[in-house]
């Protein structure tokens, strides 16, 4: 699952729109958050931590394959995929 898709799913699960997230992150507009998500092929860790924190998640590093091998963990964890060559426009949420 791509990073922006993970955030989209978590926002939906938490009933938060981009406008609400932008406000909670202290951003000037929903458009600023949308741009951040479009450019999310290589997100900054600090920005990711902020957004995930608002959605009740945190960043964790686990051994490779751990999520896939553990059914209980696979139900609640997300493993982002990153494109080989990030594109500049990505795709809006």
Describe what is shown at a glance:
It contains 6 helices and no strands.
List keywords for this structure.
mainly alpha; 434 Repressor (Amino-terminal Domain); single chain; 93 residues
Helices, strands, pairings?
Blueprint: H1 3-13, H2 18-24, H3 30-38, H4 45-54, H5 66-69, H6 71-76
Helix pairs in contact: 2-3
CATH homologous superfamily annotation = lambda repressor-like DNA-binding domains
CATH topology tier name: 434 Repressor (Amino-terminal Domain)
- CATH class equals Mainly Alpha
Question: How many angstroms does the end-to-end distance come to?
Answer: 14 Å
The CATH architecture designation is Orthogonal Bundle
Strand count: 0
Biggest sheet statistics: none
Query: What share of the residues lie within helices?
Result: 40-55%
User: Approximately how much beta-strand content do the residues carry?
Assistant: under 5%
Secondary-structure element string: HHHHHH
Query: In angstroms, what is the radius of gyration?
Result: 14 Å
Helical element count?
A: 6
Q: Any idea how many domains?
A: 1
Low-confidence stretches: none
What is the global morphology? Answer: globular
Helix and strand content put the structural class at mainly alpha
Mean pLDDT: 83
Q: Give me the oligomer status.
A: single chain
What can you tell me about this protein's structure?
- The protein is mainly alpha-helical and about 90 residues long.
- The chain has a single domain, classed as lambda repressor-like DNA-binding domains (434 Repressor (Amino-terminal Domain)), CATH 1.10.260.
- The protein has six helices and no strands.
- The longest helix is centred in the first third of the chain and has 11 residues, at about 5-15.
- The two termini are about 15 Å apart.
- About 10% of the residues are buried.
């Amino acid at each position: 699952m791509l990073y922006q898709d993970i955030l989209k799913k978590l926002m939906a699960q938490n009933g938060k729109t981009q406008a609400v997230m932008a406000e909670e992150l202290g951003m000037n507009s929903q458009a600023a958050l949308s741009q951040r998500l479009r450019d999310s092929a290589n997100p900054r860790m600090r920005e990711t931590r902020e957004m995930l924190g608002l959605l009740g998640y945190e960043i964790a590093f686990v051994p490779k394959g751990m999520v896939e091998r553990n059914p209980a963990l696979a139900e609640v964890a997300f493993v982002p995929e990153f494109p080989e060559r990030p594109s500049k426009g990505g795709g809006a949420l």
